[in-house]
């Protein structure tokens, strides 16, 4: 039997069926008041005739187009989705063109559909849109879908349901293709035709009826998305108009008619918020470029305008890597005009240059009038290049400018780090609405978590050599060593598919997290994804996990811990065997990139100032960007072959958003978020996939909230409320750890009932030693010496406190004989920290003592903390010292002793929380105008 032979397909009743189909579609067209659907002629009147005509040329087409035979398709269909993708992408023939012909068999169509759907579900950046567009253009495949659906839901062809499992799979695969094709190209003719056919179904078989309802519901939801008002920004890259305009008035959809519309509205809202949060500080930069004054004085330290820079090409680009093709020459015009030795860059310029990191967005324009704009992302910042004044870039967009090379340009960087905004925005833009993960909790507000889908009542877990049923039992606590609240949190984390655990300061969040991870990886079938907000927290957690498993890989290159460096993905990939088809495809795309790059350079050389030539440049630039995205995707595929063998995959949220499709490849079921309350809601969502079956979020919303670049936007949109906080507060029975093991009881008492209702101290903290040469473990030195501001950026500092803090530190080191590593100086204000550090350097004994802002010390602890609060004025202003979250972090870092300095009268006057804290301090007799020094050698600056 040949590939095209199929008795079902050429049934004697097909003529009658097609006539019925024709009448159905025409009748529906007459009934509709909406836009008329033009159904292809060959689907209706001439369909059977076309089958005959096209069949006669089938053999010739198959030879010239190198169509795959049925055996090859069967072989491909047994592969994993990724292997399907690599196989079809490296074929000599085009897998997406002319593979389906009019007289092809039902099996061939189903196999082809299965392969396309599997690849489509991967949603590979750079390739996904191309695949969807290929399906949208494949009218012959769509004709087959019309006919197959008509037969499946027709009584006369009920025998097709003898292969019920195969038919169910086909309908699901076809639905996936049609939905994603629609979301990529707004193609809706085929969707409406299929719905019309289903509507006239006369097959009342129970299974058939159920599948009919499921398919029609899925397609109707997709079409209804068009009825939602779409104000979603197309991309996060700003235009000139974006940068010149007033802040956007955030709009949302008013019509939420169904689940699909609700998801669309949710994504739309968060895309708007992300773009506006990114744009607001960038608009201030543009105002400075145009007016030479900064609208926000606090930007002065972080903003620098580079003048007379050049964008230059690597003359050896054909032999260069992708990130070494285009550079910014910071010396630019000066390098070009000097014949003799080029002057060295100033120290200030070098410092600014070295702060620019990979992933930053750079903006260029030819003049302060800002009539044109070039946007580029930083791709390469090697030390050798930076010393010479070069930064590797990739051009992202250009507006109102043709020739961009070797001409003097103004350059500045975006104040907000671009990469996380870009990655999360693109995920939200491209994610599949129909498979939105955990939407019952995130969007629909369900507060009663179900059990993870991979768990059954029969599931048995191994834990430390013991067996237990995770839904009904717990392992021996002698092994776990958890307190009652930790044990309850452990149990919920295992058996709730969406678990949230609050861990106040010092309550053993990390210890609990390690026990949860240890138990899960011992029983999980896929790698566990561990995501943290900061690199420091991630490294700290991975170090603890590495004590019981070496099967770890860390993504990202910002680790500072030598114990973790060996797990870095880059180093691991270099020593791994890689799929040869992937190597071939990467080589093919690399050549495609260089070809696209050459074409772009040709367009620049041929630019004559005309609008047509400018459009050619934009098209060439767009193509280059698309190929670059393919290469980034393939690079992550190399990493996939390493990651799939690991038990734990660790990364920060910034890294996770850009590798979301890696999680889809891995089909990872479990995602754990550390510091979850510090992560923006959209960043959490961007780490989930349709394969996610279990989410565990561990954090504390009463400590630091997510960072946003603009306070006004934060207040208007509540963007600083994390997903953790939003859902935790609405949970009817939230779980919080209650016993703290960090702070001396006097210190912990400051937080009890002021910040936390049920916080209690473990007996062990009562045994902490007294602080040498100090009469108490806790003290607040109050004063009324005025704060001050710097002239250029209005940043706050308090010189009196600087002196007192440094003198106390000197006493603790020289007289009390504490090691500098035992002491941490904190302040809420960066300028105060700068001044303290300068003073510390004047004392040899204190030069290695650490001082940092309160925010940057979140999640860390020290034996002794000296806290400088700065604010002291007659205008009753204490700024963000009113915020309970920052008060909480500031007062919860110390273990053995904490010594604060500030204007306690002012703080209590401006904040009810500080008023309660003052009452507790006075109960402990811990307030005075001098630190309680037990030494005659201590110096006071009066």
UniProtKB/TrEMBL annotation:
A GO term (biological process) for this protein? regulatory ncRNA-mediated heterochromatin formation
Give an example GO cellular component term for this record.
nuclear RNA-directed RNA polymerase complex
Which InterPro entries does the protein's record reference?
Answer: DNA2/NAM7-like, DNA2/NAM7-like_C, DNA2/NAM7_AAA_11, P-loop_NTPase, SF1_C_Upf1, ZNFX1
Q: Which residues form the ZNFX1 domain?
A: 345-414
Its domain of life reads Eukaryota
Q: Which residues form the DNA2/NAM7 helicase-like C-terminal domain?
A: 720-904
Protein name stated in the entry:
AAA+ ATPase domain-containing protein
KW Zinc (keyword) present: no
Q: Where is the DNA2/NAM7 helicase helicase domain?
A: 481-707
- Species annotation: Stomoxys calcitrans
UniProt keyword annotations, A-Z: ATP-binding, Helicase, Hydrolase, Nucleotide-binding
The answer to whether keyword Transferase applies is no
């Amino acid at each position: 039997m040949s590939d095209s032979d199929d008795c079902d397909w050429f049934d004697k009743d097909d003529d009658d069926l097609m006539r019925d189909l024709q009448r159905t579609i025409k009748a529906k067209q007459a009934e509709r008041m909406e836009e008329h659907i033009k159904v292809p002629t060959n689907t209706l009147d001439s369909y059977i005739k076309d089958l005959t005509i096209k069949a006669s040329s089938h053999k010739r087409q198959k030879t010239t187009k190198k169509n795959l035979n049925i055996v090859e398709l069967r072989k491909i269909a047994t592969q994993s989705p990724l292997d399907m993708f690599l196989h079809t992408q490296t074929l000599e023939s085009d897998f997406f063109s002319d593979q389906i012909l009019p007289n092809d068999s039902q099996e061939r169509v189903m196999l082809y559909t299965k392969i396309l759907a599997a690849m489509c579900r991967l949603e590979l950046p750079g390739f996904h849109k191309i695949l969807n567009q290929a399906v949208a253009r494949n009218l012959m495949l769509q004709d087959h879908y019309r006919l197959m659906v008509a037969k499946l839901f027709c009584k006369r062809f009920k025998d097709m349901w003898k292969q019920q499992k195969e038919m169910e799979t086909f309908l699901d695969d076809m639905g996936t293709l049609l939905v994603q094709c629609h979301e990529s190209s707004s193609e809706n003719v085929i969707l409406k035709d299929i719905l019309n056919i289903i509507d006239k179904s006369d097959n009342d078989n129970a299974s058939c009826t159920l599948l009919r309802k499921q398919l029609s519901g899925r397609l109707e939801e997709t079409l209804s998305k068009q009825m939602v008002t779409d104000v979603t920004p197309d991309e996060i890259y700003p235009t000139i108009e974006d940068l010149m305009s007033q802040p956007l008035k955030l709009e949302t959809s008013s019509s939420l008619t169904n689940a699909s519309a609700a998801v669309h509205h949710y994504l739309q809202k968060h895309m708007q918020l992300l773009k506006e949060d990114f744009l607001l500080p960038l608009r201030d930069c543009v105002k400075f470029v145009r007016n030479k004054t900064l609208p926000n004085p606090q930007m002065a330290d972080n903003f620098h305008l580079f003048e007379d820079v050049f964008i230059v090409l690597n003359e050896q680009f054909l032999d260069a890597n992708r990130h070494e093709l285009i550079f910014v020459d910071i010396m630019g015009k000066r390098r070009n005009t000097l014949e003799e030795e080029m002057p060295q860059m100033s120290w200030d310029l070098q410092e600014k240059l070295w702060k620019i990191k990979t992933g930053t967005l750079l903006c260029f324009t030819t003049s302060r009038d800002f009539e044109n704009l070039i946007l580029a992302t930083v791709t390469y910042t090697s030390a050798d290049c930076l010393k010479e004044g070069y930064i590797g870039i990739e051009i992202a967009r250009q507006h109102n400018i043709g020739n961009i090379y070797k001409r003097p340009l103004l350059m500045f960087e975006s104040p907000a780090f671009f990469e996380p905004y870009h990655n999360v925005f693109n995920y939200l833009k491209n994610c599949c609405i129909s498979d939105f993960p955990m939407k019952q909790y995130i969007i629909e507000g369900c507060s009663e978590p179900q059990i993870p889908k991979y768990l059954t009542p029969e599931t048995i877990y191994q834990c430390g050599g013991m067996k237990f049923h995770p839904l009904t039992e717990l392992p021996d606590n002698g092994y776990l060593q958890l307190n009652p609240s930790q044990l309850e949190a452990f149990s919920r984390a295992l058996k709730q598919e969406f678990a949230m655990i609050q861990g106040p300061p010092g309550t053993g969040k990390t210890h609990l997290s390690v026990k949860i991870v240890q138990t899960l990886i011992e029983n999980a079938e896929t790698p566990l994804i561990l995501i943290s907000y900061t690199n420091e927290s991630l490294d700290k957690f991975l170090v603890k996990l590495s004590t019981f498993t070496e099967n770890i890989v860390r993504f990202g290159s910002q680790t500072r811990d030598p114990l973790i460096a060996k797990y870095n993905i880059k180093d691991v990939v270099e020593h791994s065997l890689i799929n040869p088809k992937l190597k071939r495809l990467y080589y093919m795309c690399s050549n495609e990139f260089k070809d696209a790059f050459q074409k772009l350079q040709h367009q620049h050389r041929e630019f004559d100032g005309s609008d047509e030539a400018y459009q050619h440049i934009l098209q060439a630039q767009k193509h280059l960007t698309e190929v670059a995205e393919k290469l980034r995707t393939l690079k992550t595929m190399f990493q996939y072959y390493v990651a799939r063998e690991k038990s734990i995959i660790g990364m920060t949220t910034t890294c996770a958003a850009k590798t979301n499709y890696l999680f889809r490849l891995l089909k990872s079921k479990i995602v754990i978020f550390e510091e979850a309350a510090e992560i923006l809601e959209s960043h959490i969502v961007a780490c989930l996939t349709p394969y996610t079956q279990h989410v565990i979020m561990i954090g504390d919303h009463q400590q630091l909230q997510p960072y946003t670049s603009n306070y006004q936007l934060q207040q208007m949109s509540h963007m600083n409320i994390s997903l953790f906080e939003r859902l935790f507060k609405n949970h009817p029975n939230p779980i919080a750890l209650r016993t703290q093991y960090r702070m001396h009881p006097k210190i912990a008492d400051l937080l009890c009932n002021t910040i936390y209702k049920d916080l209690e101290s473990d007996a062990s903290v009562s045994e902490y030693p007294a602080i040498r040469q100090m009469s108490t473990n806790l003290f607040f030195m109050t004063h009324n010496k005025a704060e001050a501001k710097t002239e250029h950026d209005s940043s706050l500092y308090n010189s009196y406190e600087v002196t007192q803090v440094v003198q106390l530190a000197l006493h603790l080191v020289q007289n009390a004989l504490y090691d500098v590593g035992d002491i941490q100086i904190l302040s809420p204000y960066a300028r105060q920290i700068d001044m303290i550090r300068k003073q510390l350097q004047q004392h040899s004994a204190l030069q290695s003592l650490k001082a940092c802002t309160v925010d940057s010390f979140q999640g860390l602890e020290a034996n002794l903390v000296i806290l400088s609060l700065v604010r002291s004025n007659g205008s009753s202003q204490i700024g963000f010292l009113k915020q309970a979250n920052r008060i909480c972090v500031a007062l919860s870092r110390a273990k053995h002793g904490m010594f604060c300095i500030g204007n306690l009268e002012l703080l209590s006057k401006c904040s009810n929380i500080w008023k309660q804290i003052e009452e507790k301090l006075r109960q402990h007799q811990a307030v005075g105008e001098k630190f309680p020094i037990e030494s005659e050698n201590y110096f006071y600056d009066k």
